[in-house]
UniProtKB/TrEMBL annotation:
Belongs to the ABC-4 integral membrane protein family. Keywords: Cell membrane, Membrane, Transmembrane, Transmembrane helix. Its main location: membrane. It comes from the Bacteria. Residues 21-241 form the MacB-like periplasmic core domain. The chain crosses the membrane at residues 21-41, 286-311, 331-357, 377-397. InterPro entries: ABC3_permease_C (IPR003838), MacB_PCD (IPR025857), Macrolide_Exporter_MacB (IPR050250). The lineage of its organism: Bacteria, Pseudomonadati, Bacteroidota, Flavobacteriia, Flavobacteriales. Residues 291-407 form the ABC3 transporter permease C-terminal domain. This is ABC transporter permease. Pfam families: FtsX, MacB_PCD. It is a multi-pass membrane protein. It is found in: Cell membrane.
């Protein structure tokens, strides 16, 4: 039931103590503001990390080699490990039922690509058809490398969008020929990549053609795999970790590398990285919640202290009310009503201001690991409940004290 007199009392108290009420509300508003901003930053970090993983397949396992760092079976450290095509073919044959996509890669870092009078230095890579999905590339024109291209040593190329812009400008690149190491390759596709220009500065060739053109024999630079989807994220991580270990052990055995030499053959597992990052994100999220709630608690303590002062100032009034028959619950309700009102109004101002700031400024924030910080509706509702609970807690103890005042003692108060 709406009690007009109680609301008049609340507003009268606020009018008499404007500065005190303002400072009290400011502490609560600051707490909610800080909490929401911190949660927004946490969400932005999660978005940023997610965007980083979107650049490649979400369960990509990537292999590269280095030099040995330990003596093993009479072989000195410092040997450079060179993977062979047999390493790739054997791994695929042994794990055919586990693999979703797979490709070996032969890479030329600074390949010179010419088209008429235009020329540029780009990364030229020999790959298999699955590499499109491993790199999460999308075709903007034409097609990707296919099995027929590789089987027949076809001289075809798929170029990145940046290569197309640099060499062809506004000309349609499909069907045109580019010169790579003195050999003409027909452009059959143009691709884009979520990572942007860095990844779009590539030219893909069929693996067989690349090895033949660059006299690579059966050498490969990298291996890339992705496993078939699992029933759960934890199961996917476990299977991916097991596959990575088996692959590392196999390659070390093939190339006579010490089992504990972790630098000679490197296996990068994006699922393991994702699990570590998301675990870290959850820890940061809990930390932000803790900091925000502690800030709110500080504001609540301030509100509680102010309500104690109000109870002290209104001791005689409370005594009169009780002498006239007011029940303890009505006294508690009066104090709680005022406390919740002040806390809720201040908190809503802090909430609205923080959400507005994230709405207008958030989309402008775009760093490597923070992207579009936002707070969803569920979190906003949660902060509303926090406001109500905070207001109730702030007023409960002063209200309980007021309810326990004996009328005779209150009437003697000066």
């Amino acid at each position: 039931m709406f009690d007009l007199e109680r609301w008049e009392e609340i507003f009268e108290t606020i009018r008499k103590n404007k500065l005190r009420t303002f400072l009290t509300g400011l502490s609560v508003a600051s707490g909610i503001f800080i909490l929401v901003i911190l949660l927004g930053i946490g969400e932005g970090m999660k978005n940023g990390i997610s965007r980083e993983f979107e650049q490649d397949a979400s369960n990509l396992i990537f292999v590269w080699t280095n030099i040995t760092t330990k003596e093993y079976k009479g072989l000195n450290p410092g040997r450079r490990i060179q993977m062979k095509q047999e390493d790739y073919l054997t791994t695929v044959a042994k794990n055919k039922d586990k693999l979703e996509y797979n490709s070996s890669i032969y890479r030329i870092w600074n390949g010179i690509v010419n088209y008429k009078k235009e020329s540029g230095s780009y990364r030229v890579e020999g790959v298999y058809p699955d590499y499109q999905f491993l790199e999460n590339s999308s075709l903007s024109a034409g097609r990707f490398i296919n099995k027929t291209d590789d089987d027949n040593y076809e001289k075809v190329a798929v170029i990145g969008q940046k290569v197309k812009n640099d060499l062809f400008k506004d000309i349609d690149a499909l069907g045109e020929y580019v010169d790579i190491s003195g050999i003409k390759f027909k452009v059959v596709g143009v691709f884009t990549d979520p990572a942007g220009e860095r990844e779009e500065s590539r030219v893909y060739l069929p693996m067989s053609s690349a090895q033949k053109v660059f006299n690579a024999q059966n050498h490969v630079s990298n291996l890339a795999f992705s496993l078939k989807p699992a029933e759960s994220f934890e199961q996917a991580v476990a299977e991916s970790t097991q596959f990575s270990k088996e692959l590392s052990d196999f390659l070390k055995e093939q190339h006579t590398v010490a089992p504990d030499d972790d630098r000679a053959i490197r296996v990068n597992n994006t699922l393991e990285n994702a699990k570590r990052f998301y675990t870290l994100m959850n820890m940061i999220k809990y930390f932000f919640w803790g900091v925000g709630i502690c800030t709110i608690i500080a504001g609540v303590v301030g509100v509680s202290n102010i309500m104690l002062i109000i109870v002290k100032e209104r001791t005689k009034e409370i005594g009169i009310r009780k002498a006239l028959g007011a029940e303890p619950l009505s006294i508690i309700g009066m104090i709680l009503h005022e406390s919740i009102f002040v806390t809720a109004i201040a908190g809503f101002f802090g909430l609205i201001f923080s959400l507005a700031l994230l709405e207008f400024v958030g989309p402008l924030i775009e760093t490597q690991y923070i992207y579009n910080p936002t707070v969803n509706f569920q979190v906003a509702i949660t902060t509303v409940f926090i406001l109500i609970i905070a207001g109730a807690l702030a007023g409960f103890f002063p209200a309980w004290r007021a309810a326990r005042i004996k009328p005779i003692v209150a009437l003697r108060d000066e």
